[in-house]
């Protein structure tokens, strides 16, 4: 599922454009907001979601894994990522995963 960008939160920093391994993210020149230029090519790696400093990007979990409003929300810190996992019944669980790049 392609990334969904919250235009209110996007500050046009370009971090998502730089990190996307598929070169799919772009900054709209007029609005200075990010968008995915090829939704069908996105493979949900979530690199852009993790990299966004403003929490402006979400990926929707494919229906085979969990119906809306199931969500995975990463929050990147210097040495770890905190994952908030919300299931289809709105149960919330948090996981801390250490990053390898220390
Ligand atoms: S989820 Fe991955 S492939 Fe999809 S736009 Fe973001 S960085 Fe690119
Ligand atoms: S990383 Fe976030 S704030 Fe920066 S351009 Fe992308 S969506 Fe906007």
Automatic annotation (TrEMBL):
One of its GO terms (molecular function) is iron ion binding. SUPFAM superfamilies: 4Fe-4S ferredoxins (SSF54862). Pfam families: Fer4_7. Keywords: 4Fe-4S, Electron transport, Iron, Iron-sulfur, Metal-binding, Transport. The keyword Membrane does not apply. Signal peptide: none annotated. PROSITE patterns: 4FE4S_FER_1, 4FE4S_FER_2. InterPro entries: 3Fe4S_ferredoxin, 4Fe4S_Fe-S-bd, 4Fe4S_Fe_S_CS, Fe-S_Ferredoxin. It comes from the Bacteria. Residues 1-30, 32-62 form the 4Fe-4S ferredoxin-type domain. The keyword Thylakoid does not apply. Ferredoxins are iron-sulfur proteins that transfer electrons in a wide variety of metabolic reactions. PANTHER family: ADENYLYLSULFATE REDUCTASE, BETA SUBUNIT, FERREDOXIN III. This is Ferredoxin. It comes from Desulfoscipio gibsoniae DSM 7213.
